[in-house]
Each structure stands twice: as C-alpha cells, then as structure tokens.
Design brief:
By secondary structure, this protein is an alpha+beta fold. β3 and β4 form a beta hairpin. α2 runs antiparallel to α3 and α8 crosses α13. It is elongated and about 95 Å long. The protein starts with 6 loop residues before the first strand and ends with a helix.
Length: 453
C-alpha cells in the first residue's frame, strides 16, 4: 500500500496526485449501501467509497463534479433535499434503457424533453394531480416560441402512460424520491382510452370473405382474412406460418413460430409469451389450431396461385402469407403490412356496401377477427377448452383442468361449427385467367367483379 507521503495534495477536495507517475486519484462517494458485515454475517447500511485513477486533472475534476451531482440528487432525509423532476425522469429512463428498443427509447426521450420543459424544475413531491392536468392542457397549446407545438390527444395519452409508469418507479424507492401515491392516474386530461374489440356476426364475416374471394386479385389478402377469422391466428403467427405447418390430413395447423415486429424489420420467434429456451411445446407456447374445411380450400387456392407466380411447386419451408410483390422480389413482408392491407381491404368493402345502400361494417382491426372467431365458437356451444387451446390461451379453472387435464388436439367441434356458420362458397374457376386478366390492384378489375357481390 502506498504511504501518505507518496501523494501530493491538490486544491480540490477528493483529488490527490500520485508522486510516482503523476496520475490523479479521485475519491468517489457511493453513499450508504447495504453491505455484508463479515463479523456478524448480517447485511447492514454502510458508507461506501471507491477510488478511480485518471491521467489528467481535468478528468479528475469531471469525475468529482459528476459524483457531486449524483449526491445532490439523492434524498438524504424526508425533510431535506429537493428531488427535481428532471433528475427523477433521468433516473427512470436510465433504469429501463436496456429493456427498450431503439425506436421506443427515442419516443420516450422525446416525451421526457417535453415534460422537462414544464415540470423540470419542480420537486416531484410537490407535483399533484392538478399540476399534471395543467401540464396536459399546456401540451394542447402552441408554444412554438420554446420549440413545442400542440400535440394530439393520442400523444398526450402516451405521455400520460409514461408518467404513470415513472410514478410507479418512484414509489418503489420512497426513501429516495418521497413519492407515496401515483398522482398521474387520477388526471382527467390525457385519460387513456381503452380499445373495445369490434365483433361481427358469422354472416357479416362470410360476406367479407366472399367479397375478398370475388375481388382480390392477390390471394394473400384472402389468406389473411381466412387465417384471422377461421383459425384465430395472431398477425405475427400468420406471417410466420409455413406450408409444412399445414397438417392437411389431421385438420390442424401447427402454430410453432411467429414473425414478430421489431424496431428495424422483424425476427422469427416463439408465439406470444413463449419462452425461446423452453424445453417443451407448452413452455414455448406452441399449439395446434383448428383447420376447418373451408379454410383448407382457401389455402389450396393460395398455394396454387403461388405456384403460378413462382413457376414451380411450393416448398415446405416457404411461407403461406406472401404478397405477389414479395414473391417477385423473393422477400418476406414486414408484419406491420398486414394491418395496412387489412384496412385497405375493409375500406374497399365498405365503399361497395355504401353504393349498394347497405350499412358499412364497423372499423375492424385484424385482431378483431380473432375476437369474432372465439365469440362465434363459444356462443354456439363449442367446448371452451378446444377454443382456448386452438387460439393459444391458457385455460383457467380448478386443479382438475390446470393440473390433470391435457390437450388431445381434438378440434372436431370447432371445425364443425366454423364450417356450418361460414356460408361462403370457396370456388374460383379458371384461376390462370383470373390472375392475368388485370394487373394486380386494377380498379377496373374490381368494378367488374363487384357487380357480382
């Protein structure tokens, strides 16, 4: 250990210079931490310090300044010490930084900058629900002079969601922040609206499917509507489905993977909530979904069109949901495209219904067709366990069900119910003529065939 005379004191507290090599030793105060007392074998609070060695005095002063800033942010007692909102939100962002993707991290940082502009100099213990509401009102106004224009209610909802999570974060460290309640949850402004699923009837779904069969030149749209509404697959599971997963003889679909949306592109992973390192199908949340006869007929049409576009028979490893442009360019579509394609299909369908003086369908997300399938089957007497296992939900119930019951992959009741309720005739004659009659997306082609609806 170096002797005291081996160091040269400086004019800056916590910094001294080593004689041997001229480097600077900086003492860093880590505050009080839980440490193991080796004598008693118990954890106890102790003042902790450490040292760092840097080559220049400038770097040493920078480390000291940073450590002093951290010490100022720490709340020494419940009475003394002001905890600025700007410091608290920095702690919050730093804590969750590793859990967020790049795009989400950037959005949260953008929201944080706006929050700091209004709340930054306030003590978090002095912020109440009324202050949060006034902040949301401020967000709706134009403050271009300070670089913040008005934002829409949907963005305010997202900021409220972030602030609510931040207050939960602070409540977990009450000794540091002094926060005992979540003041954001009661704010009326910025109230987060929960989306209620729109469920349509079997007749309405049959008409939508019939419209797609008669008017969509790219059969990938038909496959999307069919897999969502007759198999109950999620968007990522539709995109991750391969032809080898279609078990024609068993009337089952092996849902073993999904193509999940990521900040940049997508990745192949387990179905929702599945553990990629799981040793069993149950741990990976893999399952067998029902394959009704009408869905099988749709998929055979899709397979035939893909063979025509590619000029060869489909291969087991090729994906079921592939648009014509994807096949031509030999790429896979981004899962987010499913939402846009389904919205475009629904818009075209509702325009035709309006021309025919029929009431348009309510706005649907593609996930709403999954709600429709589950409601349709349960309302018509299908065993709930069959439905739960087919769509990938964990069946809740007593010990007999959760412990002793095992899925036998029997989907007979579900298949019979779907084929009985979906009345669409899956027939398109002369497929080659249909494909090459008009270019993909031709309005003229749609008008001609819409008259048949």
């Amino acid at each position: 250990m170096a002797r005291k005379e081996d160091y040269i004191p400086t004019d800056f507290p916590g910094i001294k210079q080593r004689k041997s090599d001229g480097k600077y030793i900086v003492t860093i105060d880590l505050g009080r931490q839980m440490k193991l007392n080796k004598k008693t074998g118990e954890m106890e609070m102790r003042q902790c310090k450490t040292t760092k060695i840097v080559p220049t005095l400038k770097e040493a002063k920078a480390l000291t300044g940073k450590n002093n800033a951290v010490k100022r942010r720490k709340k020494v007692s419940r009475v003394a010490g002001k905890v600025l909102f700007s410091d608290a939100i920095d702690d919050f962002l730093a804590f969750y930084d590793d859990d967020w993707g790049n795009s989400h991290r950037e959005r949260q940082a953008s929201y944080a900058r706006r929050c700091k502009a209004y709340l930054g100099k306030m003590d978090v213990r002095d912020i109440d629900t009324r202050t949060i509401e006034e902040f949301f009102k401020w967000c709706k106004e134009d403050h271009s002079e300070v670089g913040y224009g008005p934002i829409i209610p949907k963005t305010i909802q997202k900021i409220k969601s972030m602030l609510s999570k931040m207050w939960k974060f602070m409540k977990k460290s009450q000794h540091k922040y002094g926060v005992t309640e979540n003041v954001v949850m009661d704010a009326e402004y910025g109230k987060v609206d929960t989306y209620e699923a729109a469920v349509i009837t079997p007749e309405e779904y049959s008409e939508l499917l019939e419209f797609a069969l008669k008017n969509e030149l790219d059969y990938s749209n038909i496959a999307l509507v069919a897999l969502l509404g007759m198999a109950g697959l999620r968007r990522g599971e539709v995109c991750g489905l391969q032809w080898k997963d279609i078990l024609w003889d068993k009337k089952l679909i092996d849902v073993r993977q999904q193509r999940a949306q990521r900040n940049v592109g997508w990745e192949i992973t387990c179905p929702k909530n599945g553990d990629p390192d799981g040793k069993t199908r149950a741990e990976r949340r893999q399952r067998y979904a029902a394959l009704p006869d009408k869905l099988a007929e749709v998929l055979k049409l899709v397979a035939k069109q893909q063979e025509i576009y590619q000029g060869h028979e489909i291969k087991p490893d090729e994906y079921v949901y592939r648009q014509k442009v994807d096949i031509v360019n030999n790429v896979l579509c981004n899962p987010r495209v499913c939402d846009r394609r389904f919205n475009e299909l629904q818009t075209r369908y509702n325009k035709i219904r309006e021309k025919q003086e029929k009431e348009p369908l309510p706005h649907l997300r593609n996930h709403d067709l999954r709600h429709t399938l589950i409601s349709m089957c349960i309302n018509n007497g299908v065993d709930r366990l069959q439905v739960s296992c087919s769509v990938g939900h964990r069946p809740e119930g007593n010990t007999t069900i959760t412990t002793y019951w095992h899925d036998d992959n029997n989907r007979a009741e579900m298949i019979e119910c779907i084929d009985r309720l979906i009345t669409t005739e899956i027939v398109i004659p002369n497929m080659e003529a249909e494909i090459y009659r008009k270019p993909l997306g031709s309005p003229e082609g749609r008008v001609t065939r819409n008259n048949e609806l």
